[in-house]
């Protein structure tokens, strides 16, 4: 990339979590708009929906939105770390599906502990392979995780006789307790997001991540463990995707084979809407959470008002929304960095 | 691009081997695959089989040609699969005016999509991957809304002829693809536009400082990619006899990118290998055909494809990094 972009990334990083107070008030306003814009829009949409859309302001509706997105939000959580490091992970949808199939297979072939550990181990291992190919062999994240998408999908198809066998979790299995209930999924997501936030803002790993995403060469020269940090980011994303698939399988009582197609796109969209820059070096876990919720609320409203178009309408709105957010983001970040 | 390769000692350097693997690997691989198949696969070299393979490979090839140009500018176009769906949705909508207006509308749809994506990249400086991701998500939904969820039959003889007829023993669409390959190769190698394209892919900022029309070139490249994808959509509708926007063009962005990468075009931009891209599309189709004709399950085929992609990019890496 060009020099110009590097400079702006450094600038962004410098105004990151360890901000020194060299910003002008205008710059600070723009930073706030970019970081917390999605939360503000989320509040506006929720308030408007409560007033205008009958049936929205209902506790059971809120709960269904939260529970329905609790596990898929974990994909966006992992994606946040990957994107801050300057990469991308296209494999999470496939890994989500693979995690579910492995968990259901594990219940039948070994019991609850196998069902819990196998998806985590496989997700983590595949993620680590991605990370090593990206950080050590220096291949493009886009292509490596694209291959990972195909590989994980092929692997789960091979496990399930080309998708014709669906492994069911027996109704008396202890494994079901892992993902059931109306509070457990929400709490799981909240705890993991909180842990992600602490990891990002309060640890050396998180600081190294911002530095690497901002300017990788500078991070190398500073003596940061660049290769290790980058590898770990993909390991984490794989772990979260496999784990989310496992939890989802416990909730659905089966390892659904055709689930997860396109989930990586929704996850990336949520992360970007949440204010994380795709160029790397800036972003927040809280932003991602509001990005996920914003997309979920919009989907919920579309389901009520545009149900005759089905999921196509939500795709259209999501696409338009993403384009708008990205345009705004580019304008905001360019004013601050690029000449 | 023409980096000096330092041959270490007497033997041939590792870089040279990797460079050669990138430059000619795909052609060697195609020849090897054909030789192996002519021995182990019955009727592989029959004209009928060749035609079947070409019908499968040509739409991907055409999409990949446009993708190669975009990748040459250090961009990427994820919207091609969704553009195929939009083209497929537009054809039955305008078929009442005759086949050629319908095809023209489909191609215009692709051009508009390219214009939108290209504007975001050229003027707003949005990263190509996000700009086209937004289009990819949005356009598929738009196409399904236009058409309705069920597939519509398309029986127009002109359009189905485009997708099914043969000329001199080979599919008409294969001849069209040959024309497009020649045209794009000419565009890249012999025109100012081609020079500007690769210069921008090498270094956008330097090209802008040198006074090249960066925005116009970027815009044109994305429009070409959109039109090519829409044309592939027309061919798919003609070949299938149905317009099915919900299912047409799924994964085409992946297939096209793979063909481009396998063909030796670096993702880092600054270089476009047109013949290599065509060979890459044929190679991926040959792999699929070989595995299918030997009853290898599609799951294993997917895993094999994944490994081939990584291997191809690894080979390409040798030259891209000084």
- Shape annotation of chain B: globular
Q: Which stretches of chain B are low in confidence, meaning pLDDT under 50 for 5 or more residues running?
A: 1-10
- Which structural class do the helices and strands of chain A define? mainly alpha
Q: Which class do the helix and strand fractions of chain B yield?
A: mainly alpha
Helix-residue proportion of chain A: over 70%
In short:
The complex is a heterodimer of chains A (339) and B (322). By secondary structure, chain A is mostly helical. Chain A contains 14 helices and no strands.
Detailed description of the structure:
The complex is a heterodimer of chains A (339) and B (322). Chain A has helices at 3-14, 25-52, 59-70, 72-84, 92-109, 112-135, 141-159, 184-202, 204-214, 216-221, 226-252, 263-273, 285-305, 311-336. With 339 residues, chain A is mainly alpha-helical. In chain A, α4 (72-84) crosses α12 (263-273), α6 packs antiparallel against α11 (226-252) and α12 (263-273) packs across α13. Chain B starts with 13 loop residues before the first helix and ends with a helix. Chain B has a two-stranded antiparallel ribbon with strand order 1-4. A two-stranded antiparallel sheet of chain B has the order 2-3. With 322 residues, chain B is mostly helical. Chain B has one domain (15-320): ABC transporter involved in vitamin B12 uptake, BtuC, CATH 1.10.3470. In chain B, α6 (157-164) packs across α10 and α8 crosses α10 (214-240). Chain B contains 13 helices and four strands. Helix content of chain B is 74%, strand content 2%.
């Amino acid at each position: 990339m060009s020099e110009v972009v590097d400079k702006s990334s450094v600038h962004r990083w410098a105004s990151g979590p360890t901000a020194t107070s060299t910003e002008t008030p205008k710059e600070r306003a723009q930073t706030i708009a970019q970081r917390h814009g999605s939360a503000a829009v989320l509040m506006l949409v929720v308030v408007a929906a409560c007033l205008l859309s009958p049936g929205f302001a209902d506790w059971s509706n809120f709960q269904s939105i939260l529970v329905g997105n609790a596990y898929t939000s974990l994909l966006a959580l992992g994606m946040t770390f990957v994107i801050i490091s300057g990469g991308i992970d296209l494999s999470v949808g496939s890994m989500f599906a693979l995690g579910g199939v492995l968990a259901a297979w594990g219940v039948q072939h070994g019991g609850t502990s196998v069902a819990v550990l196998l998806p985590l181990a496989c997700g983590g291992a595949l993620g680590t392979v991605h990370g090593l190919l990206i950080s050590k062999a220096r291949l493009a994240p886009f292509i490596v995780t694209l291959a990972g998408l195909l590989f994980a999908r092929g692997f789960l198809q091979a496990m399930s006789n080309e998708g014709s066998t669906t492994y069911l979790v027996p109704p008396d299995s202890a494994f079901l307790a892992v993902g059931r209930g109306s509070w457990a999924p929400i709490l799981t997501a909240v705890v993991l997001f909180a842990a992600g936030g602490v990891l990002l803002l309060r640890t050396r790993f998180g600081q190294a991540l911002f530095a690497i995403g901002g300017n990788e060469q500078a991070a190398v020269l500073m003596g940061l463990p660049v290769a290790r940090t980058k590898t770990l980011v993909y390991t984490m994303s794989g772990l979260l995707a496999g784990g989310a698939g496992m939890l989802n399988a416990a909730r659905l009582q089966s390892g659904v084979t055709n689930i997860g197609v396109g989930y990586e796109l929704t996850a990336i969209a949520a992360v970007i809407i949440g204010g994380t820059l795709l160029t790397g070096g800036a972003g927040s876990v809280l932003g991602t959470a509001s990005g996920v919720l914003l997309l979920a609320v919009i989907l919920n409203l579309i389901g009520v008002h545009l149900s005759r178009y089905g999921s196509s309408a939500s795709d259209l709105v999501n696409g338009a929304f993403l384009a708008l957010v990205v345009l705004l983001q580019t304008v905001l970040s360019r004013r601050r960095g690029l000449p | 691009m023409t980096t000096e390769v330092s041959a270490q000692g007497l033997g041939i350097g590792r870089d040279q081997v990797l460079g050669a693997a990138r430059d000619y690997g795909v052609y060697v691989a195609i020849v090897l695959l054909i030789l192996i198949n002519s021995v182990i696969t019955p009727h592989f070299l029959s004209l009928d089989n060749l035609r079947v393979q070409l019908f499968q490979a040509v739409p991907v090839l055409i999409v990949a040609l446009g993708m190669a140009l975009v990748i040459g500018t250090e961009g990427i176009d994820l919207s091609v699969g969704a553009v195929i769906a939009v083209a497929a949705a537009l054809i039955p909508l305008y078929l009442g005016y005759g086949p050629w207006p319908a095809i023209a509308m489909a191609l215009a749809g692709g051009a508009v999509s390219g214009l939108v994506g290209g504007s975001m990249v050229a003027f707003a400086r949005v990263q190509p991957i996000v700009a086209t991701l937004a289009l990819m998500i949005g356009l598929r939904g738009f196409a399904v809304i236009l058409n309705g969820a069920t597939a519509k039959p398309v029986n127009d003889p002109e359009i189905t002829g485009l997708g099914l007829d043969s000329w001199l023993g080979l599919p008409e669409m294969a001849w069209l693809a040959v024309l497009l390959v020649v045209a794009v190769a000419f565009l890249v190698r012999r025109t100012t536009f081609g020079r500007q394209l690769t210069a921008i892919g090498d270094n956008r900022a330097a090209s802008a400082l040198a006074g090249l029309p960066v925005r116009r070139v970027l815009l044109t490249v994305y429009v070409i990619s959109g039109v090519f994808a829409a044309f592939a959509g027309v061919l798919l509708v003609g070949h299938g006899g149905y317009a099915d926007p919900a299912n047409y063009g799924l994964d085409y962005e992946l297939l096209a990118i793979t063909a481009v990468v396998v063909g030796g075009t670096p993702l880092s931009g600054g270089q476009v290998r047109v013949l290599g891209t065509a060979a890459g599309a044929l190679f991926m189709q040959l792999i699929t055909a070989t595995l299918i004709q030997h009853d290898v399950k599609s799951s294993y085929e997917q895993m094999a494809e994944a490994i081939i992609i990584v291997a191809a990019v690894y080979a390409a890496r040798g030259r891209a990094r000084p």
